[in-house]
Amino acid sequence: MRTLIQDATVITLDEQDRLLQHADLAIDGETILPLGEIPPSFIPDTIISGQDLLAMPAFFNAHTHAAMTLERGWAEDLPFERWLNERIWVAESALEEEDVYWGAALAAAEMLRGGIVGFADHYFWMDQVARLVESSGMKANLAWCHFGLAPAQELGGKSFEDTVAFVEHWNKAAGGRILTSMGPHSPYMDSPAVLHRFAEEAQRLGVGVHLHLSESDQQMRDSLDRYGRTPVAQVASTGLFDLPLPALVAHCNVLQEDDYAILAEKGVHVAHTPKTYQKLAMHMPPILEMLRRKVHVALGTDGPASNSDLNMLEIMRLVGLYQKGLTADATALPVAQLLRLATQAPAAAIGFSQSGVLAPGRPADLILLDTTAPHWLPRHDLSAGIVYTAHPGDVAYVWCNGQLLYRQGEFLTLDYERIRFEAERRAFRMVGKSMHSMRLTPNV
Amino acid sequence: MRTLIQDATVITLDEQDRLLQHADLAIDGETILPLGEIPPSFIPDTIISGQDLLAMPAFFNAHTHAAMTLERGWAEDLPFERWLNERIWVAESALEEEDVYWGAALAAAEMLRGGIVGFADHYFWMDQVARLVESSGMKANLAWCHFGLAPAQELGGKSFEDTVAFVEHWNKAAGGRILTSMGPHSPYMDSPAVLHRFAEEAQRLGVGVHLHLSESDQQMRDSLDRYGRTPVAQVASTGLFDLPLPALVAHCNVLQEDDYAILAEKGVHVAHTPKTYQKLAMHMPPILEMLRRKVHVALGTDGPASNSDLNMLEIMRLVGLYQKGLTADATALPVAQLLRLATQAPAAAIGFSQSGVLAPGRPADLILLDTTAPHWLPRHDLSAGIVYTAHPGDVAYVWCNGQLLYRQGEFLTLDYERIRFEAERRAFRMVGKSMHSMRLTPNV
């Protein structure tokens, strides 16, 4: 497919931070052609008028549990322990293999509609998610979650060996759109021996790791008591920070002084999901200090059971607003940096480091935003508009690897009507509700 | 007009917090009929199928400067002093009377699209805003901003007497949809003598007051130095908290112990605009303590020059997330309370205390949200969906006083194409840009 977008405004996020006006942008197969230098030999199959449209790199989501869309709204206004024990685990005890497919499909629809083309997912029955990613045209880095003390232990539907087999089977599948990582849950849910085994298998297979790390004061205390080391140092000691690919760790809400140097030296990517931290009243991770010490930080949404949604526009906004308020410095995290934290940074964190910039030869992972709604006007600063006023509904076109996946309300690779029905039906079954509970007589 | 909405889900926000399913909701003229008890004699002019639609009270906005849409995006990532001196005042020095009409019209479009039907506005040339409110069908409480030491001083285009004349002329206009208030800027921009004069005039005319109050440590120190009293106590001493209607004060970022009792005893409504506080790195007002001490708190957006947008859905979300994080208590400010803070509370704060609940005989100020987009599914908790996942684009229908003002992307009382053109043209003129600056050759 050859697509020409004519006369658009283009936010490149390149090294010069160029914002082009009345620019022509061409997609040739899977990649972007030089901006403003489209060769005469390029004959497009499709031409899109770029008037009132804003082109930018697509968003990537550094950490989620996609199928947990099924539990969205099922555990509101509860303290973390009750959220987990009384709600999430109860619902997940009823989780069936195919539920994961439909939950992830609902997540895919939500992510595409909001301009997200790639995500790091960490959950169970990940072959279901891989099937969905393959057919949806998206990109993903998938890890089959493992928790338990012994490698052979049956947990989350699969043994240690099965989760490793998943990594081997699906890595670089779908023309490279699917990457896989080892998926130990965390250093508090997996023993040091298991973490060592994961490090060995990752070395053997040439992949990375994706896990949860250092989320609370309690975890910090327990790790110091049990291992004499912080959670970060504990994971470093298992070899998981010395893999062929840099590690992706979620959260790091609580760090000690030496942890920053470990994370920076090992090139670890830290996924930051602020909406979940606030909603579940967790500590806000010290990302400005991480960034100052050259730790890679990438934004993400976490799963919708905690985060409510999968909206990277809102995540950028929450990060900018929170950090400005926290530091009493309105210049903290300027707009261009927030845009990179939601595009280039998570793309790199999950293994797609060529994405996140509109430049010649880069993968055509991009979106067009419709800027006609009132909240975009006047167009004094369209970049600030993206960060501080835009909504998923403004996303008009979404391409991944040059394939158009979403166009003005229409999902081109997903059967959205079926997804709606299957996801809701299964979600209600998991929590013991029948569909008829939505169809009762008014309770007046 | 008689409108029947059939088979909808209805969030009443009544005293029993009833959520009705498959309910019929009827609007007869300006008011709502008893839910589920529509008399056979009611013959609707219009029937709307409520399938996949969620009815709720419309939002009200307790504090804004509507025409400052014209400066949206014009002052990003700047410290407060530079934001004000280098950007806002420079742009406003070029403000012309008719600009206020078109800036407010753009604000009206944005607010209606996001389900806001009423707002408290505090700015200049407020007769322009009154004209706009009159023709748009919205509700508003309008105050002509005055700052200066002497009543006769010429500032903001009008003298003290002129701003009082505006209050007298427009109060209860447009069938009661327009209310007016005295509009001294603040106790640091208006002298005690001027504030006294405003209190006298408000008594004479039977109106309230809308002003800025206690926004920073500096204001607190200056007030204590100059008057030996906190800003709250200083305003109380001028009589402005003893008017025929309760006072509306914006912000109260910094309070001292005795201030809470004054605000509670005098029935003052405090407008809370958290996005602006975070974006400009101001102190977050202690609203949980205010609520605990029975101070009326109502949510608002402030002006788009500081706040970027006019989105009460996002304001609820920011308040819930911030306060849960701040208190390390995930149960703080549950969903139902946040919904009230964005509907009933600001409606009451700006003089429309019958609005904000769907109940028989109440004004038909209501909205329908379309719940078919992925972020609404599964429908475990639609109230939580409104607070934590909804966007302005989900708002499908908006009624104010029984008049349909917005329907599925269409503004029924506003000429949106003309507003877009006029607002942007004028905004660019104010900051010295020509429209052609958006129409330049690509800067590649």
Sketch the major β-sheet of chain A.
9 strands, mixed
**Strand share of the residues of chain A?**
15-25%
CATH homologous superfamily (4th level) name of the largest domain in chain A: Metal-dependent hydrolases
Number of helices of chain A: 16
The radius of gyration over CA of chain A amounts to: 21 Å
Write a structural description.
Chain A has 2 domains: 2-58 and 355-411, Roll (Urease, subunit C, domain 1), CATH 2.30.40.10; 59-349, TIM Barrel (Alpha-Beta Barrel), CATH 3.20.20.140. Chain A is 36% helix and 21% strand. The first copy, chain A, has helices spanning 80-92, 97-113, 126-136, 160-170, 192-205, 217-227, 231-237, 257-265, 274-279, 287-292, 304-307, 312-327, 335-342, 344-349, 382-388, 416-430, and strands at residues 2-11, 19-28, 31-32, 46-49, 53-57, 59-64, 116-123, 139-144, 178-182, 208-213, 248-251, 269-272, 296-299, 366-370, 395-400, 403-407, 410-411. In chain A, strands 1, 2, 3, 4, 5, 14, 15, 16 and 17 form a 9-stranded mixed beta sheet that branches. The interface between A and B is large, with 85 and 86 residues.
Layout of strands and helices, then pairs:
The structure is a homodimer of 444-residue chains.
Chain A: E1 2-11, E2 19-28, E3 31-32, E4 46-49, E5 53-57, E6 59-64, H1 80-92, H2 97-113, E7 116-123, H3 126-136, E8 139-144, H4 160-170, E9 178-182, H5 192-205, E10 208-213, H6 217-227, H7 231-237, E11 248-251, H8 257-265, E12 269-272, H9 274-279, H10 287-292, E13 296-299, H11 304-307, H12 312-327, H13 335-342, H14 344-349, E14 366-370, H15 382-388, E15 395-400, E16 403-407, E17 410-411, H16 416-430
Parallel strand pairs in A: 1-4, 1-5, 6-7, 7-8, 8-9, 9-10, 10-11, 11-12, 12-13
Antiparallel strand pairs in A: 1-2, 2-3, 5-14, 14-15, 15-16, 16-17
